Amino acid sequence: MVSSIPSLAISLLIILSTTGFLPLSVYGTGGFSVDLIHRDSPRSPLSDSSSTPSSRFKSAVERSFSRANYFRNAMQQNTPSFSASSPSASENLYSGITANGSEYLMSFYVGSPAKEVIAIVDTGSDLIWIQCKPCKECYPQKIPLFDPQASSTYKVISCKADSCPALPSESCSHGSECEYTYAYADGSFVDGFLSTETLSFDSTGGRRVQVPSTLFGCTHHSNGTFSDGSGLVGLGGGQLSLIRQLGSSIESKFSYCLPSLAQSSATTRLNFGSSAVVSGSNSVTTPLIPGKPDTFYFLHLDQISVDGQGSVLVNPSMQAAVNAHQGNIIIDSGTTFTFIDNETLQSVAKNLARSVSFPQVADPNGLFSLCLNVSGSGDNDKLPNITFHFSGGAPVVLPDDNTFVEVAENTVCLALLPSEFDGIGVNIFGNIAQQNFHIGYDLSAMQLTIAPADCANM
Ligand SMILES: *[C@@H]1O[C@H](CO)[C@@H](O)[C@H](O)[C@H]1NC(C)=O
Ligand SMILES: *[C@@H]1O[C@H](CO)[C@@H](O)[C@H](O)[C@H]1NC(C)=O
Ligand SMILES: *[C@@H]1O[C@H](CO)[C@@H](O)[C@H](O)[C@H]1NC(C)=O
Ligand SMILES: *[C@@H]1O[C@H](CO)[C@@H](O)[C@H](O)[C@H]1NC(C)=O
Ligand SMILES: *[C@@H]1O[C@H](CO)[C@@H](O)[C@H](O)[C@H]1NC(C)=O
After folding, report:
1. Which of 32, 155, 190, 240 has the greatest count of CB atoms below 10 A from its CB?
2. Cα separation of 349 and 51, whole Å?
3. Best of 385, 401, 412 to mutate for ligand 5, by most ligand atoms within 8 A of CB?
4. With bands split at pLDDT 50, 70 and 90, how would you rate the model's confidence at 191?
5. Is the pLDDT of residue 40 over 90?
């Protein structure tokens, strides 16, 4: 079904310097990077000036659960693909985002002449889509709608084209266009035509990178609360994702480095190609494990250890729940919290409680398994590091910023949530745990490399 896609993959990737518009091949240029905008930063169209730390916390929790639910459903069905007939059915999901609910956005350009769009970045789905004119009952966006008629490089894909079946749910429109309907975790949906267009990215440092003939969705009908964003960029491992379409021109490599939650207005970058190489003596490498659906990035987590206490083997039962794949955890940039099977989580919490002198308190929100009263803590009272041991001898030492959240004044909780719902669970390595690490995905070597970094100052 997907074997025909490589022929449609971009044949050319050009970098235009902003001064001379000299076309250069991306090879040997050092790759490129684009800015990532946190949803709560003032640059984000999703930012809500009336939000408070506690309302943001609450919605991050809701988004995490909704995303965990999406991963769980997609794992059970092996693919985020089903009939397009009931887009609002909660089991037919193409992304775990709630329409207003991803963490990062990026700005890029579509068409010729190039028009700016700002879209949610999602490592848990593949399709790139934006809202296009004419748009029937579409959710409002801040930036003008993209007008395909006004672009000389826009082409709609026929439903007979080889690339059409790459959509998890395709159908043939009255005009024989290749049509998709994607449903989101909160019942929102987008409906449109698979198309090709020139995408361009403002690379950090002022170059513009152009990618002709990129497959993307032109959405002509939508419903949801995507707030003011123009659409979504899928960075998953499937054929239609930006990463797979850029393919060999970026050596199938991308990376990001997320600053801490408190630095949500810091500029951070999404890197491609040689800019996405993570190296150094502090870096560790673990296999990316092929799994179903191929959209998701699976790793194998062997153990979790608390400084000064023993290691806890990650309960293998979760693997049965994911159809015996070898991966037992999905790494995802769009899930705030980390989800671990409850048995493992309880053992980690027990070890942790033993290793600290702070009194335990109940979580005021009733969510977390272990909360501590840290009032009156002195300089010598520290929360221990927690190490996630990934396969291939890849210990990732997580300082307390990556494993604890402050839920009330002087109350901190271990930021791990149980992955089981109704007896089925999918472990997720979430973005609090990933903060201040440079994380490189190499889809050609099928390796993930992680190195500690000061992401706000990179
Ligand atoms: C759009 O969503 C709103 C609320 O989310 C719902 O009330 C409405 O029926 C939906 N419209 C369509 C056409 O599905
Ligand atoms: C965003 O989504 C959450 C559900 O995840 C919902 O409760 C909230 O009302 C939505 N906010 C907006 C502004 O649409
Ligand atoms: C996790 O285990 C603890 C202790 O056995 C139990 O109290 C809690 O209800 C469990 N949580 C879930 C979601 O199963
Ligand atoms: C935390 O401990 C302090 C004194 O050590 C106490 O005054 C406070 O009430 C405690 N907070 C909670 C939430 O238990
Ligand atoms: C956590 O690990 C870092 C280095 O990996 C170390 O500098 C720091 O002291 C550790 N923290 C604690 C509380 O042990």
Report:
1. 190
2. 31
3. 385
4. very high
5. no
